[in-house]
Specification:
eight-stranded mixed beta sheet; five-stranded mixed barrel; Alpha-Beta Plaits; elongated; Glycinamide Ribonucleotide Synthetase, Chain A, domain 4; alpha+beta; 9 helices; binds adenosine-5'-triphosphate; 4 domains
C-alpha cells in the first residue's frame, strides 16, 4: 500500500513503525518482535529515535488475546533503505509471529513521521478508549501509510496504526522486559523470588506493581510459554534498571529492552456524568450513590448497585480482587462514591462495571433494624417466626409485644481511594498511590 513516499524531499526520512497481533495463547509476544526489529535495525545502521512504545489498547476489546498490547518505534534511515526496512519486518513476522493461528492477524505499518497528524493521533487515542472501526483504520492507512502489512486478515492493522501514532496524552511509565533464550521458552522461569521482593523494597517509590505485597505474589513473570522472562514496571528508566540488577536470574537471557508505556496512566478511562452515557466495551469513571446492600454470591464475587438519581448500574469486585471486596461489603445505601472500571455486557447479566478502583467520597448514616434486647437480662432476643414474637436465648423470657429497634450502624469505612491489589490490576489502570508518588517526586 503506497502513501506519502513522494512527499519526501530529503535523503533521510524519519518513520514511525507500529506492530501488532503477532501472538496467540500458544506463544510469542509482540514486544519480542519489536525487540528483534530494533536489534536488526541497529546492525543495519537505522537510528532508533527516542524510546520504543508499548501501548496498551482498550482493555475491554473482545478481540484481544491477553493485555491488548501494540508496539511502536521511530527510526531515521536513508530514504532509499525503506524497502530494506520493510523486508526486515516481513521476514521477522514470518519468522516469529503465530501465523498458523487463524485468530492471529500479524500486522505492521510504516508511516512518515511528518504525516502523523491530529486525525491519526485521535484515532490512536480512541483505540485505547473505545472499539474502533476497521474501515476507518484502512482509510487512514490508504492516505497515510508508506507501507502496511496484514496477514490472516486486516484486524491487526488497527493496533499497529495506533501504536505508530500514540502520543501519551496523560503521561507515561516504563517497563523493562527481559527475554529468554529459545531453548528455555515454555519451561519454568528461573527467577529468584526473594530477590524480586528485595528489588521491590530497594526501588520503592520509583517502581510499582512488580510484587503484590498484600497477597505475597511476584508479578513480573508471565505464566505463558512466550519469550518474556520478566517485565519490571517503574517511573523512570534508571530505576527499572536498578531493580533488574538486583533480581537474581538463574537462566541465560537473550537480552532486555526498556519501553515507554501508557501502563498505569488511566488513558483508557472515559469520565461520564450519567449512567446513560456508559457505552458497552469501554472503561469509565462515574460518581454515584450506593443504592443497594452489598450482595456476596457463590464464588466470592461482591455486587452493589449505584444510582446517578435516574438510572442504576451494578458495580462488581470479583474474587481475584481479594481484600478489595471488603470495601464493597462495607458500603451502605446512601454512600457517595466514585468508581473506575470496565463495562462489558454479558448475556443474562445486568449491566455491571468491573471495578479497578473506588473512591469513597462521603459516608451516609445507616440505620439498621435489630431484634429488641431482653428487658430482663439485656441479651439480644431471637425471633420466634413471623408474627410470633421474640424469645431471649439466655433467660428464655418470651414476649409478643416487642418490636424491632433502630440502631445507627458503626461504619467500617473511611473516605479515600481504594485500589484492587496488584495481582488483579489492569495494565492501564492507575493505582491511586501513583498520584501521591508522582507528587512527591515532583516536589
Ligand atoms: P498482547 O498479548 O500482546 O498483550 P493481545 O494479544 O491481547 O496483546 P492482540 O493479539 O494484539 O492482543 O489482538 C488484539 C486485536 O484487536 C488486534 O488485532 C488489534 O488490532 C485489535 N484491536 C485492539 N484494540 C482495538 C480497538 N480498540 N478496537 C478494535 N480493534 C482493536
Amino acid at each position: 500500500m503506497l502513501g506519502s513516499l513522494n512527499t519526501v524531499v530529503s535523503e533521510k526520512i524519519e518513520i514511525s513503525v507500529g506492530i501488532d497481533d503477532t501472538d496467540s495463547p500458544k506463544g510469542m509476544c509482540t514486544t519480542y518482535v519489536m525487540y528483534r526489529l530494533i536489534e536488526k535495525a541497529n546492525t543495519e545502521g537505522f537510528k532508533l529515535v527516542g524510546m520504543p512504545r508499548l501501548v496498551r489498547l482498550n482493555p475491554a476489546c473482545p478481540f484481544k488475546t491477553r493485555g491488548n498490547a501494540a508496539l511502536g518505534a521511530d527510526f531515521i534511515l536513508d530514504y532509499d533503505k525503506i524497502n530494506k526496512f520493510k523486508e526486515i519486518l516481513v521476514d521477522l513476522i514470518f519468522d516469529l509471529a503465530e501465523i498458523n493461528e487463524k485468530k492471529t492477524n500479524p500486522a505492521f505499518v510504516i508511516i512518515n513521521k511528518n504525516d502523523i497528524d491530529t486525525n491519526l493521533v485521535e484515532f490512536s487515542r480512541i483505540a485505547v478508549k473505545r472499539i474502533v472501526n476497521l474501515n476507518e483504520a484502512l482509510n487512514l492507512l490508504k492516505s497515510k501509510a508508506i507501507f502496511a502489512f496484514g496477514y490472516n486478515g486486516p484486524r491487526g492493522l488497527i493496533g499497529a496504526l495506533s501504536a505508530a501514532a500514540y502520543d501519551f496524552p496523560s503521561g507515561f511509565t516504563y517497563e523493562l522486559i527481559a527475554y529468554r533464550i529459545k531453548e528455555m521458552r515454555g519451561k519454568k522461569r528461573l527467577v529468584d523470588e526473594m530477590s524480586v521482593y528485595e528489588a521491590d523494597i530497594k526501588t520503592k517509590g520509583c517502581t510499582f506493581d512488580n510484587v503484590d505485597q498484600e497477597n505475597k505474589e511476584i508479578k513480573i513473570t508471565p505464566h505463558t510459554p512466550c519469550p518474556v522472562l520478566l517485565g519490571i514496571r517503574g517511573l523512570d528508566p534508571e530505576c527499572v534498571k536498578k531493580a533488574f540488577s538486583i533480581i537474581k536470574i538463574n537462566e541465560p537471557i537473550e537480552g532486555y529492552i526498556i519501553y515507554k508505556t501508557n501502563q498505569a496512566t488511566d488513558d483508557h478511562i472515559i469520565e461520564v456524568n450519567s449512567i446513560k452515557e456508559i457505552e458497552p466495551l469501554t472503561s469509565v469513571s462515574i460518581k454515584g450513590k450506593v443504592a443497594s446492600m452489598p450482595a456476596l454470591i457463590k464464588g466470592g464475587h461482591v455486587f452493589v448497585e449505584i444510582t446517578d438519581g435516574t438510572d442504576k448500574i451494578r458495580i462488581a469486585a470479583y474474587e481475584p480482587t481479594k481484600n478489595f471486596r471488603k470495601v464493597l461489603i462495607n458500603l451502605r445505601p446512601g454512600d457517595f462514591i466514585q468508581v473506575w472500571g470496565s463495562y462489558k455486557p454479558k448475556d443474562n447479566e445486568p449491566p455491571t462495571i468491573n471495578l479497578e478502583k473506588i473512591r469513597i467520597i462521603s459516608i451516609a448514616p445507616y440505620v439498621k433494624l435489630l431484634n429488641p434486647l431482653c428487658p430482663i437480662c439485656g441479651t439480644r432476643m431471637k425471633s420466634e417466626g413471623k408474627g410470633k414474637g421474640y424469645q431471649c436465648p439466655k433467660c428464655k423470657y418470651k414476649t409478643n409485644s416487642a418490636e424491632k429497634v433502630q440502631e445507627l450502624e458503626k461504619r467500617n469505612l473511611v473516605p479515600g481511594f481504594y485500589d484492587v491489589p496488584a495481582r488483579a490490576r489492569r495494565h492501564l489502570s492507575k493505582p491511586s498511590f501513583l498520584e501521591v508518588l508522582k507528587d512527591e517526586r515532583q516536589s
